[in-house]
Amino acid sequence: MLRRVITKSLLARKRHLLVASGSVLLGATLIASLVTLSLGMKTQAGRELESYGANLILLPESMSLPAGAGGLAFGNIVSEGYIAEEYLSLLDAGQTKEVKSYTPYLYTVATYQDQKMVLAGTLFDRLREMSPYWGIEGKWPGDGKDAEGIVIGRKVAQRFGLHPGAPFLLDFGGATKEFSVAGVAEVGGSEDNQVFIELRTAQLLSGRSGQVDLVQVRASTENRPLAEIAAELEKNLYVKARVVSQIAEAEETVLFKIELLMALITLLTILASGVAVFSTLTSSILERVKEIGLMKALGAKNSRIAVIFLAEAWAIGLVGGLLGNIIGLGIAQAIAKSVFDSYLSPQIPVIPVTIAAALAVATIAALGPVRKALTVDPVVTLRGE
């Protein structure tokens, strides 16, 4: 009997059901799209922020030993260390999953036209991947294939009147080697005063085979903070890991603001949907006062009457939640395509979250009208008062 009453009630009030379901549908659609975007855009935003460059710097551990003679202490002698290149294979092996890319550097000094300058040995393919913001006039040398090709900073090029294709003869303390300028880099930092050569060549000319001075690392902050990633790298690679605070803070701020914006919009949407359901059910109860009074006069318990109206609310929430999931996913994909030019991966948790939110909104919004229905006095109602 209860099932028949509920079914008849829903069928007899299609217009009210559609209006309320439409309100919940709008809310569920926004919830589904915003939650999908919040989860997916965090990953997409992290990828976009990779253009900022490295957010971790790996430095070698230095060794400090006490020095003295005859009971006299002369202080400590600090021996600068290096990072063994073989350790970098751990980064390639994915032992720390958050590491997306890295670029090693080996620094040395050479002379060009009687002026000393800093040379940075690196892997050009990794440098190109890590530094998409660099402005390059000319081209990047082919890493490992074009050992004679180099990249010079903009200020070096201006100082000596150099351009892509120009010869570049360097003196390494008596030994000379001629290179060819493949590209001129404009970065806006200390790189504009440096010369970049292929890592293997730098190791050979400086007599430091298998060594690097520092490693720039790009790590994802999607799943855990940079401090934890840095600690893990220090433990695994026997290095000092330093966070590039400006980039790290910028990433955390951007991602936090995205999540906060999504949360605020979702909250406002839920409130608006709840108000719509509340007004619809309240109107329904006011129109059915005599019906409620008759049911009570025939012996219907308050719990039965409450179930009837809650069932309407649940039907509204379920219909709105299911349809909102479908429409919301489409909207989220359209936004992601227009903003990031890529589609978001399916976010399975969004489906139960959206349906649960729609049902919760409908239930909470129905509590007030249901309470009003339970206060109906059958005697007063049936007398027409």
H/I helix tally: 12
Beta-strand fraction estimate: 15-25%
Q: How many structural domains?
A: 2
Calculate Rg over CA atoms: 34 Å
Short synopsis of the structure:
The chain is α+β, with helices and mostly antiparallel strands and 385 residues long. It is built from 12 helices and 14 strands. Mean pLDDT is 78; it is low at 63-79.
Describe this structure in words.
- The chain is rod-shaped.
- Mean pLDDT is 78; it is low at 63-79.
- The protein has 385 residues and is α+β, with helices and mostly antiparallel strands.
- Strand 2 (63-69) and strand 3 (72-79) form a beta hairpin.
- The chain has 2 domains: 2-48 and 253-382, no CATH class; 56-242, no CATH class.
- Helix 1 (2-12) crosses helix 10, helix 2 packs antiparallel against helix 8 (245-287) and helix 8 runs parallel beside helix 11.
- The strands form 3 sheets. Strands 1, 5, 6, 7, 8, 9, 10, 11, 13 and 14 form a 10-stranded mixed sheet that branches. A two-stranded antiparallel sheet has the order 2-3. A two-stranded antiparallel ribbon has the order 4-12.
- It contains 12 helices and 14 strands.
- Helices cover 54% and strands 23% of the residues.
Question: Mind sketching the topology for me?
Answer:
Blueprint: H1 2-12, H2 14-49, E1 56-60, E2 63-69, E3 72-79, E4 83-84, H3 89-92, E5 99-112, E6 115-122, H4 124-130, E7 135-138, E8 149-153, H5 154-160, E9 167-172, E10 175-186, E11 194-198, H6 199-206, E12 211-212, E13 214-219, H7 226-237, E14 239-243, H8 245-287, H9 289-297, H10 302-340, H11 350-374, H12 378-382
Parallel strand pairs: 6-11, 8-10
Antiparallel strand pairs: 1-13, 1-14, 2-3, 4-12, 5-6, 5-13, 7-10, 8-11, 9-10
